[in-house]
Design a protein that fits this description.
Length: about 80
């Protein structure tokens, strides 16, 4: 799942996958602003076939948090 998540992030942030570390978060990742965050959430929903509740979106600001949420919502 982590590699697939990093692939989605690379697409949204328009960077090579190698530029997305396993501990990437909204503070350390260049270009991760509020607009890109929303784009990332939408792309994750489409790519993983899940629905991320709007109240959870603001909390998903790191690779680990996103990965946990995707698992919780049945993505595999």
């Amino acid at each position: 799942m982590r590699e697939r998540l990093r692939d989605v992030m690379a697409t949204v942030f328009e960077v090579p996958v190698s530029d997305i570390p396993d501990d990437a978060d909204s503070v350390t990742m260049p270009g991760w602003d509020s607009l890109r965050h929303l784009e990332l959430m939408l792309e994750l929903e489409m790519s993983f076939g899940v629905r991320i509740p709007a109240d959870q979106v603001p909390e998903l600001t790191s690779v680990g948090a996103i990965e946990d949420a995707l698992r919780d919502h049945g993505a595999g």
